[in-house]
Write a structure and sequence with these properties.
It is built from seven helices and four strands; from the N terminus they run αβββαβααααα. The chain has 158 residues and is of the alpha+beta class. The chain has one domain: Endonuclease, Chain A. The protein binds zinc ion.
Length: 158
C-alpha cells in the first residue's frame, strides 16, 4: 500500500533516473495531489505512479499473489486498494492531469522499455535518439549507487 511504502524505493529511483536521462523535469511526492503521485511532470500535466505489483494488484502478474490464510479478508483489502487507486485516477483526470502507471516488475526487468511505454501511454513519444540514452544495466547501477538501502523495503512489498 502506498501509505506504508517507503520513499525512494528502488523502482522509483530507476524511473527517476530514466526520466532524468531523457531530459524531463519532474517533481516527486506531490502530497497535495490525489493519491500523492510518485512523479509529477508539470510541463506535461502528467503524473506517474510507481506501483508495487502486490499491493496494487498488477493484473496477470505473478507477484500479485493472494495469501491462502484469511483469503477473503485479503481479497477485500486488495479490492479496497484497487478502488482507491481508481478513485485517485478519476480525481486527477478531473483536475486535468494525465495519469500513467509504472509497475515495479517492469521497472525491475526492463526499465528503459517500461518508462518509454509509460510516457507513450501518456501521449509523450520519446525519439530514438533520446531512447538511446537509456541503458537498463546503467539505470540499475545508478539507483544502486545512490540509494543502496532502498531496495529491501519495496522488494518484499511486491
Ligand atoms: Zn507486476
Amino acid at each position: 500500500m502506498s501509505r506504508i511504502r517507503g520513499k525512494n524505493t528502488k523502482p522509483e529511483l530507476i524511473a527517476r533516473s530514466a526520466l532524468h536521462r531523457l531530459g524531463y523535469r519532474f517533481r516527486v511526492n506531490r502530497v497535495d495531489l490525489p493519491g500523492k503521485p510518485d512523479i509529477v511532470l508539470p510541463k506535461y500535466k502528467t503524473v506517474l505512479f510507481v506501483h508495487g505489483c502486490y499491493w496494487h494488484r498488477h493484473e496477470s502478474c505473478p507477484n500479485a499473489t493472494t495469501p491462502t490464510k484469511n483469503r477473503e479478508r485479503w481479497v477485500e483489502k486488495f479490492a479496497a486498494n484497487v478502488a482507491r487507486d481508481r478513485r485517485n485516477e478519476v480525481d486527477l483526470r478531473r483536475e486535468g492531469w494525465v495519469v500513467t502507471v509504472l509497475w515495479e516488475c517492469e521497472l525491475k526487468h526492463h526499465p528503459s522499455e517500461a518508462v518509454v511505454a509509460a510516457l507513450a501511454d501518456a501521449g509523450m513519444s520519446v525519439s530514438d535518439v533520446r531512447r538511446a540514452r537509456l541503458d537498463d544495466s546503467e539505470l540499475r547501477r545508478a539507483a544502486d549507487r545512490r540509494f543502496s538501502r532502498s531496495w529491501r523495503s519495496s522488494d518484499r512489498q511486491g
